[in-house]
Write a structure and sequence with these properties.
alpha+beta; 497 residues; 29 strands
């Protein structure tokens, strides 16, 4: 296959436009010019813009340019059609753009039955903009594909034959449905085209023509044994089947059961030791107070064990919720960091970021640090994420909101409060690492704040973070920052083992 290149296009047709946002604007990439775009004069479908390619081409990719800032008229959902004639186009893509300033490139459908097919026309149909009830805008479009006639001509010939055979099959199905079997057999013989898989023909015969339901089941069973339904089954979405481990009453009222169980709570944390098949649960909020009970759940026999009803009395953490913990299965240790406090309960004395480790085998808590912020680690945070590199014994902590004493503001914070609606809780923590063997913290990345670049990773809450031990990468997805709900996805290399 020849090398892909930029395709020459012109505007062929469009549904509407709102002056001065004319359709021809999308042929020039002017990211800094807010007027350099096509905008429909309505958001009522169908709205469209049709491009004509200067020569028949195998269109492989489409690139959308955007304005230098996010915009409410950007296409959240769109559909792209293509074909040799405007009246007979097929769907090439259904997708959407991110509401940012970065160009996006999509691969278009350009093969049928393993053969490439050419297009002369391409139509973009906006479906939904990012702003509710706003008209649609496209800033720039570029097509890439193959225009070498030595490549395109054989594909065009094959596609013409394919469409003819497809039309004949549709006629055969129609004739059979009408019961015009003589005409059906004559056309089939004349064109020498097999209508369908022989098993489908057999199924039509026994089910539709003869109404033999018993034989129909046998036909379907044979087809299933031959793997005929395999591709269809594999393309279906998985349907989860949930199994209740314990009744709700047993969880809320442990005395009902012979075995103790943790009570109702939220904001707690769990971690699992896959080697011993044991789940550990610590802390949380029961609706009235924070908790500091530690439980273990042994998966093979489905039994809970109350390890400690009050970890504070054993040298462990105070009651807390919205904390995080991770487990080192090799050294049999659990690490606990962070917590949330209501504003009225905050003071400089209780806003220290204490950091604990629990020795599972010796049933012993150790206070690693009274305040990680004093030794190079994060300030007291909640709704952060924490995970462990099991090879290098490094704990990574990212994001979360920083708690600050009520009524106490720095000059920067005071300026924020006077100029915006942000509260003191809208300060976010960066990315930190903790090396367990040497008990040392390191700040890897601070929160860029309002100075963040368009595609720079911002600190957040409510995100997910995982560590891949083979690729040695952190994967961070989504989250919330102020009133913005994110769907960005980052990976960060953590070096070689």
């Amino acid at each position: 296959m020849n090398k892909s290149e930029k395709l020459g296009v012109t505007i062929w047709n469009y549904s509407s436009y709102s002056p001065p946002y004319e359709p021809d604007n999308i042929l020039q990439d002017k990211a800094h010019d807010q007027t350099s775009r096509w905008s429909s004069d309505s958001n009522v479908p169908p709205q469209f813009i049709t491009l004509k390619i200067e020569k028949p081409a195998i269109v492989q990719r489409i690139t959308f340019g955007k304005y230098e800032k996010s915009h409410v008229c950007n296409l959240k959902k769109f559909r792209i059609l293509g074909g040799m004639v405007e009246e007979k186009m097929i769907v090439l893509l259904e997708s959407g753009l991110k509401n940012d300033s970065r160009q996006e490139t999509f691969t278009l459908r350009h093969e049928v039955d393993g053969h490439c097919f050419p297009c002369r026309f391409l139509q973009i149909l906006p479906i939904q903009s990012w702003g509710p009830s706003f008209n649609f805008s496209i800033w720039y479009v570029e097509l890439n594909g193959i225009i070498d006639w030595n490549v395109v001509k054989p594909c065009l010939d094959w596609y013409s034959t394919y469409r003819e055979r497809l039309a004949v099959r549709l006629c055969l199905k129609h004739l059979r449905q009408l019961g015009c079997l003589d005409a059906f057999e004559a056309l089939k013989k004349k064109k020498n085209i097999r209508l369908e898989d022989p098993r489908l023909t057999e199924l039509h015969d026994v089910l539709v023509l003869r109404g033999d339901f018993v034989e129909t089941e046998r036909v379907l069973e044979r087809a299933m044994d031959d793997g005929l339904f395999g591709p269809f089954i594999s393309s279906q979405e998985y349907v989860p089947q949930w199994t209740r481990i314990a009744e709700q009453a047993e969880l809320n009222f442990p005395g009902i059961s012979d075995n103790p169980r943790p009570g109702m709570r939220g904001g707690h944390q769990m971690c699992i030791d896959a080697t011993t098949e044991t789940i550990y649960l610590f802390g949380g909020w029961d609706g009235a107070q924070d908790l500091n009970d530690l439980w273990s759940y042994y998966i093979p026999n489905g039994e809970w064990t109350l390890v400690s009803s009050n970890t504070t009395n054993e040298g462990g953490p105070t009651p807390r919720s919205c904390h995080k913990m991770c487990l080192d299965s090799e050294n049999r240790q659990i690490f606990v960091l962070g917590r949330y406090l209501d504003t009225q309960n905050r003071s400089p004395e209780n806003l220290k970021s204490d950091f604990y480790v629990y020795d599972i085998d010796n049933n012993q808590w150790t206070l690693i640090s009274e305040d990680t912020a004093l030794v190079g680690g994060p300030k007291l945070v909640f709704d952060h994420q924490m995970c462990l590199d099991p090879l290098k014994k490094i704990i990574y902590v990212f994001g979360g909101r920083i708690l600050t004493p009520s009524g106490t503001y720095t000059s920067t914070e005071a300026a924020m409060l006077n100029s915006t609606t942000y509260t003191i809780e809208h300060r976010f923590s960066g990315l930190y690492s903790y090396h367990v063997p040497t008990s040392t913290w390191k700040k890897l990345k601070d929160d860029p704040g309002q100075n963040a670049q368009a595609h720079e990773m911002k600190s957040r809450i409510g995100h997910s973070m995982l560590f891949h031990p083979t690729y040695r990468k952190l994967y961070i997805f989504a989250g919330q920052r102020h009133k913005e709900y994110m769907n960005d996805f980052f990976h960060i290399s953590c070096g070689h083992g």
